[in-house]
Amino acid sequence: VAARGQASAQAPRTGPDLPVHEVTLDNGMRFLILPRPGAPTIAFVVQYAVGGVNEEPGRTGIAHLLEHMLFKGTTTIGTSDFDAERQLLELVDAVADSLARERALGRVDSSRVAALTARIGALEDSARAHVIGNEFDRILSRNGAQGLNATTTAESTIYYVELPANRAQLWFVLEADRMRNPVFREFYSERDVVMEERRMRIDTSPGGLLYEAHLGTAFQVHPYGQPVAGHMADLRRVDRAEVRAYYQRYYGPRNAVVAIVGDLDPERIESWARSYFRDLPPGEPPPPVLAVEPTQRGERRVQVEFDAEPQLRIGWHVPAPSHPDGPAIAVLATLLTGGRTARLYDALVLRDRIATFVSSAPGPGERDPQLFTIDAVPRAPHTPAEVEAAVERELGRLAETPPADAELERVRNQLAASRVRRLQSNLGLAFQLAGSTSLHGDWRETFERVERMHEVTPADVQAVVRRYFHAANRTVATLVKPPRPPEAVGGGHR
Amino acid sequence: MTRRLAGLALLVALAAACGGGLEAQDVGRRAVERLRYPPLRFDPPEPEVHELPGGIQVYLLEDRALPLVSVIARFQGGYSHYGRPYYAAGTAMPGLLRSGGTLSLAPDSVDRLLEYYAVQTTFGGAGESVFAAMNTLTEHLDTALEIWGDIVRHPRFDSARLEVWRGQELENVSRRADDPARLAFSEFNELMFGDHPIGWEMDAVDLSRERLSPERMRWLYDRLICPAHLALGVTGDVSWEEIRPGLEALVAEWAPCPEPLPEPPPPVIRREIGVFLIPRELEQSTIVLAHATDLRQEDTRDYYASRIGNAILGASGFSSRLLSRVRTEEGLAYSASSLWTTPVRHGGIVGATTRTKGESTVATILMVQDILREMTRQPPSSDEVDRAVEEAVNGFVFNFDSPSQVISRRMFYDAVGLPADWLERYVRGIQRVRPDDVLRVFRRHVHPERLVILVVGDPERFDLPLETLGPVTVLEIDGEPAATSPPSGSPRSPG
């Protein structure tokens, strides 16, 4: 227990002043190391600058599938006899080649396709005799690891875990091994798992379906419009060799950023970083995103039919966060929906009571021009159209009259507090350091963006509303119930 | 790998020899096996316990790392002590304390003040307890404590804000079926716990204006939010001397609780088996299956064995049998986990849940039943037991990751009558578990042939008729049986 009467906490070093220790290896791999007081635990985040946007049409979902495959182990972890296993995996690939050729001839439903698919399953089952299932995960769990997981976004793939501070070296041994020697075993059953994940998050989720349709409608050229989870047809087709080749090209150290935050000795961590990762070949830069979404010429509307109550998403194309208008756009989101006194929450939820929920944010990535989306749940009997009209009214007010300075003062105070609050979590800090470096080249960048939000004036907010929030630049997605023949309503049984 | 640990003290001294033996860049399984870890230097922080006038306990953990202070008020008791007519008022209580204004401040004034000072508040609980928490920069502590204290002590229950809450909940009722997992869990709770607070599902009757009047809120407030039920927790950049005057002002002149909390009824958990279907045209089925058990959270060998057994069965992610079989080996599901609830005062349920495409629904249920059955037939391997124990022992330090976590846990233990050192006892208890203990506790408490099985999904897609598992009752989504399939012989115990 801390001594009583001790002086209060000093204003902590926040944002760009944090004592981050930066290390860049010759192969391009970057490490951000930050000691932080507290319980003896350490958070590890690895972020690869490869995500959904790097995929070509017809080959969506590869980054996400790879996210899963990197938990499958290595040439020594996850196997009892890798030589025997490798021979069977080569046979799996050989049969998969035949299947790909069959499909390329357009024979998607032939009996040969069914036979080849069954054969792949049988060979994978034989290989399983040599597999030690989930061994990578089990080693970490048994060492007390917490929160082992990964996530794939439009622009990144991020792996993370926390360990007791005395077991930090374990992370280096495991991570260097899976970067160097990954084995994509159990590939086809894991592909089935990924399809189940898609069914859960998107195909049976009204919010997931609406999100996918909204982005797909708003972005017709830029790959923000394609699903990170992948289209089901692409998932059914993708094979092991293709995914492995993709990994070998793009998941090298030059595309990797590691953030390590917690109760640590920076020099010790740096020496491990160098000794475990320096010999890896750098790999290629990620496939570039060359597509530029053209100016939208006219409002777009899309409806998704699903047996659920209505939901609404309205989006407007806005520039990338790095654009000079970026800070004002970020402030606008807080002004509209960041709290109970925020304009849209106050008008739609508290005053008019036509919605039960409203949120707003630019997305779905960070690097390229974004879609600023307002997401709302209408409250019956009020309709999505009424909610949409109310949103437009509020935006119209802002276009006409800039916000009061007191509203911006509230936003600034919240930013100041959040600067301190974000220092409370090792994992949260590690995510921010890795993300900022991977996406913007410098760990200070996202902190500095917050600083720039402090400079935003009421006139800046008004200007971005006028500039971007007009009808021709808008895409509206609504979830509606499918029309049903009366006899289909109700239970029945079989 | 490491042997099982003899006691908690050993946890930090484990794997004594540090460093050495490892060539740089040596990776893979052998390198993992050769790693030796230095001892973890760590003194678990102990909260100070103070007392305010009226015997109110204050748990305090000073932490000067950042200029932030958190205060939490926890009130034992919730709607479950007062019966169904108070279900909506009790559920609304935390949210309406926060949003409903105070006697002196209009609701929007409270909102504006809190947001101006960037005070974060969290109000929650409902069934068994209610809590109100706030987090502020130290520089605004006095102001924040005053506003937050006003909210807790002098709520207005503004009728317009009550109406907002009521409308949101009514909307929630009509959206209950939108998410198949939410629908499955709420229906399953109702099936298992019936008319008991655990099984209640909010409906339009609960949400009548009469049941949500400011008067009813006030009546319930007087009985729940009163000094005898209160414990306070403080963490962060403040000492007892510094916070004490503010807390004394908070509890000053507080009328005593008018009556002791009535005992909530013990749940009567369903004992009949059954197969239930909620037909929905979906590509993926949501499956929940479980039955009642008598095991409670207590310091017994069986309880600890049940926790280790549950981890092996399906509560420890990829290390568990359910996820290993259903997901990793068969590719049938993204998620699969066990459920084994062990409340302190009464029994709970044991079973599993997963989601799989319609075409593999029945096969997956049969597989889950098989995995349960194996647990009742063979003891787990000692490696499985060791793994589950080491996971908890080596990860013990994460129980102290944040000061507010330490404080909340201690407040919970004291409120429900667990010893203050429950966490330490737990870690010692699980280290004594042997494979035969797990087998014994599964044989005693887990009965794969007595499951209640609920599926939300599209029977047109199922691989086999659901009747394979027994007579099927089709549920309308308000929970009333719509029809029962014709008798098809005695329920089969598949596999």
What class, by secondary structure content of chain A? alpha+beta
Number of helical runs of chain B? Answer: 16
Name the pair of protein chains with the most residues at their interface, and give those residue counts. Answer: A-B, 98 and 107 residues
C-alpha-based Rg of chain B, rounded: 26 Å
CATH third-tier fold name of the largest domain in chain B: Cytochrome Bc1 Complex, Chain A, domain 1
CATH class of the largest domain in chain B: Alpha Beta
**End-to-end distance of chain B:** 36 Å
Describe it.
The complex is a heterodimer of chains A (494) and B (495). Chain A is of the alpha+beta class and 494 residues long. Helices cover 45% and strands 16% of the residues of chain A. In chain A, the strands form two sheets. Chain A has a six-stranded mixed beta sheet with strand order 1-2-6-3-5-4, sandwiched between helices. Chain A has a five-stranded mixed beta sheet with strand order 7-11-8-10-9, with helices on both faces. Chain B is α+β, with helices and mostly antiparallel strands. In chain B, the strands form two sheets. A seven-stranded mixed beta sheet of chain B has the order 9-10-8-11-7-12-13, with helices on both faces. In chain B, strands 1-2-6-3-5-4 form a six-stranded mixed beta sheet, with helices on both faces. In chain B, β9 (336-340) and β10 (348-357) form a beta hairpin. The two termini of chain B are 36 Å apart. The chains are: A alpha+beta (494), B alpha+beta (495). At the A-B interface, α4, α5, α6, α12 and α14 of A face α2, α4, α6, α11 and β10 of B.
Main attributes of the structure:
heterodimer; A: 494 residues; alpha+beta; 6-stranded mixed sheet; 5-stranded mixed sheet; 17 helices; globular; B: 495 residues; Cytochrome Bc1 Complex, Chain A, domain 1; 3 domains; 13 strands; 38% helix; disordered N terminus
